[in-house]
Amino acid sequence: xxxxxxxxxxxxxxxxxxxxxxxxxxxxxxRAPVKASTTADSRPPVSSIAEAVYxxxxxxxxxxxxxxxxxxxxxxxxxxxxxxxxxxAVTNYHVIAQYALEPKTYRLEYAAPDGGKGGMTxxxxxxxxxxxxxxxxxxxxxxxxxxxxxxxxxxxxxDALPKGERIYAMGNPLDIGFTIVEGTYNGLVDKSYDERIHxxxxxxxxxxxxxxxxxEGRVVGINVAKRTDAEQVGFLVPxxxxxxxxxxxxxxxxxxxxxxxxxxxxxxxxWQAGFYTELAKQGFKNATFGPYLGLESAARWMNCWANTNAxxxxxxxxxxxxxxxxxxxxxYVSNQIYTGRLTLDLTLYQATDLNAFQFANxxxxxxxxxxxxxRRMTExxxxxxxxxxxxxxxxxxxxxxxxxxxxxxGLYDVTVIALTQDRDREALHARLSMxxxxxxxxxxxxxxxxxxxxxxxxxxxxxxxLK
Length: 467
Description:
There is one protein chain. The protein is an alpha+beta fold. The protein has helices at residues 26-31, 46-57, 93-101, 154-157, 239-251, 260-282, 356-364, 439-451, and strands spanning 4-6, 9-10, 61-68, 74-82, 88-91, 106-111, 117-126, 131-136, 166-171, 179-188, 197-200, 211-213, 219-227, 233-238, 284-289, 292-297, 303-308, 318-326, 331-334, 337-339, 342-351, 381-387, 396-404, 411-420, 426-438, 454-455. The protein is elongated and about 75 Å long.
């Protein structure tokens, strides 16, 4: 499973231990030998570029805070940046999600590097791209003829930024102060349904929604997430999506926070409709597991991995070979709802040192049961049944489980599980999981998933009898 973390952080009390490092005096640094340049390249050192970018950008970046109305304290923090002279700013949707869903419980506040603070009005959201546009109550400093703001890089808007270019991520990590981080633009992530830029750089919690610029200070992307199981693998929302949302905020009526759930529901429904349409367009393929065939996606952004217990020590009493295809998509809606993911799992079980009763007992725990609901989701309800087989397909024990989103009508989490029933010491276990799916799309894919479970040509006798 991919370990992915959003970069907004909840309010916390942290103790930081700093390692004691030997100090190096300035004079010692100046005495260090320096290799003379042999070229006419007069470009400044990278660190000097970062210094200039931050100096130019400092008055335009923000910390975005969600405050608890009853106590006035911070509930979550993230970052943002100004994009217009009339006070528009961009951040991540997940930074302001608490307020968007509970406007009577929370309020928004920004803090600028110069110490200025003020309220904000939420104007527009883009849940699929994890973006939000707000309007600041205060326009820059009193002495500003025109409040400073960022512009978007025209090359980034046209998807023409070259891989390898140095870029600079800014924000307020862990609430310890505004920073700038040098990184490398590595283009769009290859296997991703939603467009995300791969940044090689050390971005951290609290930097969500902060700007990432080129050397001239123009925005190429917005900090959004990082891999927690890797080093310096970060992800950015491409600038073009922010630019579109800003234009929408300028030309359309502001979001009615009382209708935020309806707008989120509309956006989630549109996203899942596009996702499952594209999934079907990309096609599917058969995967062979012993005598069985199962379904795998041929979509380029579905990541498929295989594993086995064949080399386990001590020697297992059954062999287990499996694949998982994972869309690795994820739409943050709230701290209780992270939706939009699709997984296809196929596992072949073969008894090596189990009798038929022991093998059946092993498989009995591979089903599904209902789970309790919460304030965002209904209780999961499961239905169990058998699907008849014939000469081309095995008999199946099938389970359908579903739970609904209480606040977003027409969306469900659906799980379909099937287990072959034709052999007493060999079985294929298949599992389809869909999060945030419409009912029609769930039914269509579940039907295709179950119908794909067949015998291989070599496993069935032409006369209809199993070999």
